[in-house]
Structures are given as structure tokens and as C-alpha cells.
Amino acid sequence: MPERQAIGDKASPRIIAVCGKGGVGKTSISAMMTKILMEQGSHRILAIDADPAVGLATSLGLPVRKTVDDIRNDLIRDVQSGLPGDYRETLNRLDYDLLEALSEERNLAFLAIGRPETEGCYCQVNDLLKEIIGGLSQKFDVVIIDGEAGIEQVNRRVMEAVTHLILVSDASQKGIHVCRTIQRVAAAVVSYQQAGLIVNRVREEDTALLTGLSPLIPIGTIPESEQVRRFDIEGRSLLSLPNCGALQAVRRCLIHIGPVSYTHLTLPTITE
Question: Between the CA of residue 73 and those of 122, 147, 174, 213, what are the distances in Å?
């Protein structure tokens, strides 16, 4: 992977959490964001699949070597077995295990969370893992978190500090309502600098319906894409998605929130 380069004048990474109702295409958007940032070339990117379904791995075409849940269960078994080990040894082991769990592709590293942690069960282990993952994130320029569908992940405080909370919906009022709920809950339990809404799979006739979105702040709309739909159905990696209207729209959203410079806006001819 290339040497770390700060984005703008900030040394800390931009952490982009992508959340929304299930079935609205948030994982595809996370994957397209990852693809665009990879093509920038100068960024080191960490993609975290925080959805138990591990759909981001498929969308990126990357193997899941080991999940954070696997690492947590291994450590819990050792604790239950009474295996010796001081705090420093445990930290070193977790650090090593997380690095071993990473799948890498050029300037991208990928980590799958796996099954959500059990509330109130081995809290010290869970807190230690969060600390290690937080430290790992500092080694990258951009972290993209594909969140679990709905609000449960926010309730469990899996994502406690992000720079950008990106809410994804389709054009349905149900999807918009879920995004409002996520933002309301997140405001109380998640530290974030900016929050915004991306409306996905928008048809031309839907545009007039996208009114009254307050308090959500629109970032952009993504047009319905036959190419993205076909890639999803066939289980193909969106890293190989040719340029299309949806990819251009995601790029404009990234420009809006900061990680992509305006000098890289121009894309090849749309093939859709």
C-alpha cells in the first residue's frame, strides 16, 4: 500500500458511515465510494463491513479471511479456558489477529465485523476490540463503514465517532422515515461532524416527490442503474463496474462531502 497521505490539512482519517433501511442499496453505494477513492490513487482506504450479512465483501469481490466476531470468540474461549496472558500480550495478539483478518487490494484494506456483539457479554473484550479497530483506522486516510440495516447498530453504539454520517434511502417515504429515525437516534449516541441524505435508485418521475425532507440534508440523488442491478444480481465486484450514471452521481456526492477533489470529477464516457 502507498505511504499515508493526509487529506486536506487533517492528519486524522475521514470516517464515512453509510446507514439506511435494508434493500435501498447502501452496500452498493459503499462499494462505489470505495471504487472511486481507490482510483484516486493517493488515499489509503479501509472498508469495514459492519453488516452481519457481509454483503460488502461480495460487492468488492474480496474474501473474508476472518471476522472481528471470530477474533472475539477466540479470545473469549481463551479467557474461559483460563489461558494466561497479561494485558500487553492480549493487545499484541488482537493487533496481530486484526491485521491477519484484513483482505487487501492495491490501496484498499477490507475488514468484516461479522455477527453483532452480544449486549452486556464480555464488555471488556468488546471495548478492547473497539480500541484496536480505532487504532487501526488511524493508519488510513479514509474509512468507509457499511453499516447494518436499520437502527440497531446505532443503538448498540457500534459506530461511536465518525466524521460523516451518510443516510441512504430509496425514493419511498418508508425509507426516508427510517433515515430520519437513524439520524435522530444517532444525534444522541454517535459523534459526527456532518450528516446527509443520499436518495438511491431515483427514476425521473420520482424527482418531484423528493420534497419535505427536513431535517435531513440532501447530498445528492443516484439514478436507477441497470448496470449496478446486473452486477448485484450476478454477484460481480463493483470495483470493475464501468463508468455509468450511478457512478458519476456517487462521485458528485463524495465531492460534496470532501474526500474527492474537483480536479478528478471528469470520468470516461458513460456506457449505460
Answer: 10, 21, 36, 42
Is the pLDDT assigned to residue 177 strictly greater than 90? yes
Residue 143 CA: distances (Å) to CA of 33, 34, 134, 155, 206:
11, 9, 10, 21, 31
Q: Which domains does the chain have, with CATH numbers?
A: 14-260 (3.40.50.300)
Residue 105: predicted pLDDT: 93
Contact in structure between 47 and 109 (CB atoms under 8 Å): yes
- Which residue, 141, 128, 131, 74, is CA-closest to 101? 74
**Peptide bond preceding 215: is omega within 30 degrees of 0, i.e. cis?**
yes
**Cβ-based neighbours of 146, under 8 Å, separated by 6 or more:** 18, 26, 27, 30, 31, 47, 48, 49, 50, 51, 55, 56
pLDDT tens for each residue of 192-208: 999 999 999 999 888 77
Complete edge-to-edge strand list for the sheet that includes strand 45-49: 103-105, 108-112, 45-49, 142-146, 14-20, 164-169, 194-202, 218-223
Q: Is 144 helix (H, G, I), strand (E, B) or coil?
A: strand
